[in-house]
């Protein structure tokens, strides 16, 4: 472990062993568990309005459960927090375990997990062939700090020495192209599926929605390059935002470009708002789509999820688009708990692995129509963004 820690220390200008900003020694002494570890981590450099620190974790594999406590997969998140600052990100709650309650801390205080490679080598030895591991479910494993930290690269190199697992990767980053060599090796040894999240094809909308993530056109290029390397790679057009990106024109805009990039599959799910991200996202709506604010407040007043009727309309709309462009879909059988169809974690992880083609017949839906006219119009009447 000391060798890997030494590598981390040479990657960053270590500024000292001080307590995490905002935590006095007295407050730190009262913390426990991962919050205490986070507060005691070393400073690991700074970015623009971002503080990086090491996190001396004791385990890398998370045993993921749905909101009803049902196990369904294991996950790995190389970092805590994410620089991309997506306005809708549900993972902001993970910083609450570190006693960091300001939602903005999730994108301003990034924790780099120490000894990840060594820990994974020990933990993978305990997994059985065919077990599923999801990489990047509560942080982007290829956020900018990965260029220097190379934690994700080290994790992949460990997988490349094993075989027989089912590995799903989720990212918005073009940096994944750096690792095509090791991903190709992994694909020969495991069942590998890569998911590129592209919420919108509109660069202007993406810039305010996902401020620090790569432009959509660059992500489509990455999908194409991964496919040229014969890696199974699909597009997640998620989340679909009511009244903003949930209409046929917007969804087709992403699907068409996914087809041009030779994506293996195309999938989309509606927005869900956990309490940790609700304030941040509603502030985004207030600033950029003020005419939709009241409808969002009503829609998510008592539940993080949209209605089943709205979800069904979206599923049908996405199915029609997939069929039009001949794109595959992801299946959830075997990973999604049957009595928990809407688990927040499941909506990301429960669909990371199997891909199949559409089999149902054609259905006509009026072009440009929103998936669900429950509370919002098909297109925003405020700022306009092209699909």
From TrEMBL:
Residues 358-367 have a biased composition (Basic and acidic residues). It comes from the Bacteria. Keywords: Iron, Iron-sulfur, Metal-binding. GO terms for molecular function: catalytic activity; iron-sulfur cluster binding; metal ion binding. Residues 65-327 form the Radical SAM core domain. SUPFAM superfamilies: Radical SAM enzymes (SSF102114). Residues 358-387 are annotated as: Disordered. This is Radical SAM protein.
